[in-house]
Amino acid sequence: MSVAVAADEGMAVTTRGLRKTFRTVRGTRVAVQGLDLDVPSGGVHGFLGPNGSGKTTTIRMLLGLSPADSGTMHIFGTPVPQRLPEVVNRVGAIVESPKFFPTFSAERNLGLLAEAIGTPRSRVGEVLEEVGLGGRGKDTFRAFSLGMKQRLAIAATLLKSPDLLIFDEPTNGLDPAGITEIRGTMRRLADEGRTVLVSSHILSEVEQIADTVSIIGRGRVLAQGSVAGLIGGGGGTVEVGVRHPGAAVRILREAGFTAEWLARPRGADAADALRGLDPDEENGLLQVIGAEPVEISRVLGQQGLWVERLVPSRRGLEQIFLELTQGEGLPAPSAHRPTHDASGGQAGPPPPSVARPGGEGDR
Amino acid sequence: MTRLLRVELHRLIARKVVWLTVLAALAIGLLTVSGVFLQARSIDQARAGLNQDYEQMVEQVERDRESCQVEEERERRRTGDPSVDFGCEGIVVPTLEEMYGQMPSLNDQYRTLLSGSSYAFMFLALAMGSTAVAAEFAHRTMGSLLTFVPRRTPVFAAKVLAPALASIPHVLVGLTTLLLGIPAVFRWFRIDDAVTGAEWVSLGWMALRIITITMLAAALGAAAAFLVRHSGMVIGIMVGYLVLVETFVAGAGGGPLGKLALTRNIAAWVQNGTVWESWPMSCGPFEECRPIRHELSFTHGAVELGLLLAVIMLLGWLRFRRSDLD
Ligand SMILES: Nc1ncnc2c1ncn2[C@@H]1O[C@H](COP(=O)(O)OP(=O)(O)O)[C@@H](O)[C@H]1O
Ligand SMILES: [Mg+2]
Question: What is the maximum alpha-carbon separation in chain B?
């Protein structure tokens, strides 16, 4: 049964049961299967998933570039693609690589787009300034570096002064300086009050600037929510370094937590060998899901196990990402379906949620 | 819609295809005019070179006729039959025009050369229309335009209409080159000919029909590029059609199939009805073998070409409306 969605202005983007199958010469390929995405209004939302997980396909369906097989999509509460023309001026998007006429100057490329949407041409100079291409308007697109092309594409999306910006892997192929620059631009756009939906197959690339994330794999949402929530308490993951990890896992499980003895961190063996420690029994690494760091240290401390490392960390989220998207490894967490209706009138990002791939969520 | 059309025209003009077609049409016009010039010059030279000999030839022919008549008279007297006829009246001096050929009238030149070059103008328009649209698919700018203007039907309409309008400059340049160049050649060689008022009216209509069919060719090229998404493919299909199908269809003579030939229908449109001849498959042993005359009306041409355009436009639109775009 599909969930009825109230037209929700608090959400920039929602999709329900979104499906898309490609027919190729080698048969059919399901690119998106029952995707339920929630992108809250305001802030940066990281749309994460490995290559081929259906990010671009989803974005193209949202923009009306590709018809969906089934499911519903809303942008600012307006059903798309049916009523896309009504909201299109609130949405700026770059899908995959920036596309312009290679022989036209930056100004002319933007000028033609400005004309198409009835924006005064004076906007062109302004948006070029905004992305730091002020002096390069007369150069041809062809002559631009990849980073400049990407910034020009961002400038194009700003022509409409949009409330929602959709960037599909905007840092692909950029050097570190370019990546930092684009990241800064996205953060600034969000701080101006816009919603930025940015897709990536590299978590670390958006983690620093994202307020909320959704992680998808094989065309469906595996987890979504606020970054803080996913890393910290609630459905988050905490990485625990402790002696006697086997005992620690048992204690934590008895206390009702979801805990797993992880592979040892890279380089740990060498470090332990130097210190003369037994790599098998001592100084192990656990992953605990759905618990506050304080509780973990309390529970272990009561049993005389002293926590050496406690990282509600980046690695935790990365772990979720890697394991969720590889569709293996993670013990069943206290999973609940992404909440479709709960966060209706709530301010701030929705609570995080984790869904198992191939779990009870199948329709 | 008008805004989209204006954008499309700007895109086209900025892409330089319009200027290239104008240059090409100018080249075609100049080539045609230089063909007329060469024709006139060869006639002129032949006439000048043979002018001195002409008087001798006239005298020779006079002498031949006189001796023929003398012989004839002698024979009549010998037989006593006044009806003896050696056909001496047939021995006449050919005029210079008969001997060295003559320039067709200015009006005839206009008609054949305008309708002949119209195929070239149409080809340019078709190529322009299809490259303009195919380039958008190749550079993937179609998708990014649609993220700005998501209504596909107006986008399609603007992209089909814009090349049609943008083909007006080149066909005008081509026609003007012919209309000014051909009489200039006549004046150069002091050939005294003029076009009457009625002929001008008829030529004006012909020019108008050429302009419209050129515009339709541009729209057809654009619509076809929406269908196959590659201008080389559009042109390839057209050339392939002309070589493989059209020759066969046109070869079917005056039958129902022969009347479907695209080139004939184009001629029927441009020339306001066309005629052609075909030879019967076999002539009976005692019949004289005569060519059969066929006619194709303007209306037939208009209906067939209109249907073709409508079908391609519909298919192009259907494919574009539902398709995945990058
Ligand atoms: N036009 C297409 N034709 C066939 N298969 C496609 C097409 N576009 C995408 N796919 C397939 O759909 C899946 C999702 O692709 P995509 O949305 O591009 O993933 P992502 O952007 O997350 O890397 C992939 O398996 C890809 O091969
Ligand atoms: Mg992609």
Answer: 104
* Beta-sheet strands, E only, within A66-118: 70-75, 78-80, 91-94
Residues of B in contact with A127 (CB under 8 A): none
Chain B residues lying within 8 Å of A124, measured CB to CB = none
Q: Which residues pair with B193 in a beta bridge?
A: none
With 70 as the cut, is the pLDDT of residue A271 above it? no
Q: Does the pLDDT at position A265 exceed 60? A: no
Q: In chain B, whose CA is at the least distance from the CA of A166?
A: B147
What average pLDDT does this structure show over A185-190? 92
Q: Which of A222-231, A246-255, A349-358, B285-294 has the lowest mean pLDDT?
A: A349-358
For chain B, give the mean pLDDT.
88
Helix ranges restricted to H, A16-121: 55-62, 84-87, 106-116
Burial class (CB in 10 A: 0-12, 13-18, 19+), A224: buried
What's chain B's Rg over C-alpha atoms?
Answer: 28
In angstroms, rounded to a whole number, what is the distance separating the alpha carbons of residues A316 and B145? 40
The alpha carbon of residue B242 is apart from the nearest alpha carbon of chain A, in Å, by: 31
Q: Is B114 on the interface with A (CB under 8 A)?
A: no
Looking at the partner chain, which of A94, A99, A117 has a beta carbon nearest the beta carbon of B149?
A117
Closest CB from B10, B139, B140 relative to A112: B10
Residue B326 alpha carbon to ligand 1 centre in Å? 12
Instruction: Provide the mean pLDDT of chain A.
Output: 79
Cis before A170 (ω within 30): no
Q: State the smallest CA–CA distance between residue A172 and chain B in angstroms.
A: 17
Does A99 contact B326 at a Cβ distance shorter than 8 Å?
Answer: yes
For residues B211 and A260, which has the higher predicted lDDT (pLDDT)? B211
How close is the Cα of A57 to the center of ligand 2, in Å? 7
Q: Do A100 and B144 touch (CB under 8 A)?
A: yes
Residue B166 is encoded by which pair of tokens? Answer: 């943008």
Interval between CA A55 and ligand 2 midpoint (Å): 6
Report the residue count for chain B: 326
B274: left (phi over 0), alpha (psi -120 to 50) or beta: beta
What is the distance between the alpha carbons of residues A276 and B7, in angstroms, rounded to a whole number? 74
Of all residues in chain B, the one with the smallest CA distance to A65 is B325
- With an 8 Å Cβ cutoff, is B11 touching chain A? yes
pLDDT at res. B65: 86
| ipTM exceeds 0.90 | no
Write the CB contacts of A107 (distance below 8 Å, at least 6 apart in sequence): A124, A125, A128, A137, A138
pLDDT over 70 at A245, yes or no: yes
Q: What is the mean pLDDT of residues B198-227?
A: 96
Low-confidence winner among A188-197, A232-241, A261-270 (lowest mean pLDDT): A261-270
Checking if the pLDDT of B172 tops 50, the result is yes
The residue-averaged pLDDT of A85-104 equals 89
What is the mean pLDDT of the segment spanning A156-162?
A: 91
Cβ of A101 within 8 Å of Cβ of B4? The answer is no
More confident residue, A262 or A351: A262
Specify whether the CB–CB gap between A243 and A304 falls below 8 A.
Answer: no
Q: How far, in Å, is the centroid of ligand 1 from the Cα of A213?
A: 21
Residues in chain A: 363
Report residues whose beta carbon is within 6 angstroms of any ligand 1 atom: A 22, 24, 29, 31, 49, 51-57; B 324
Check pLDDT > 50 for residue B269: yes
- A169 residue type, one letter: E
Q: Are A38 and A350 in contact (CB under 8 A)?
A: yes
Cβ atoms B72, B86 nearer than 8 A: yes
